[in-house]
Input
Amino acid sequence: MANLSPTANNKLHGKVAIVTGGASGIGEATARHIINDGARAVVIADVQDDKGENVVASIGSDRCTYIHCDVADENQVKSLVESTVSIYGRLDIMFSNAGISGATSNQTVLDLDLSDFDKVIAVNTRGMAACVKHAAGAMKEGGVRGGLICTVTAQPTARRAQPLIFRPIG
Output
């Protein structure tokens, strides 16, 4: 799907967006919609480097860039936003979509691996907050009016319909 063309409504004409978790799933689909709606550029931010580069190749490097970013690391999020503004001159949209599910084992609350839990919180909660913080700062500094910050969360293991943490004891 090389060089996607904008839709007739062109509602995102000239906008620059970042999509975290953009190398696959909802993030990838959103990046494609953003480009199809006329955005000037979309930055794919993810830790899945090969998949991210494949998305860039399929959209077209003239309108899409991949930047490795682990949203659990605020410095990487700050660098992502700064790099986006440096490359494209502005940031209009932050689609904060990166997330992880954590352990999917049959552990009980007594067996809870708190280091795994900490990683889930670092990515899904702190990561989202870092994205909002740095995107809002860049939008304000750039004089962007009507910027969009969207946060998304979905439990990747929801199809299993089982709680992640609380399981019956015994």
Summary: The longest strand covers residues 41-46.
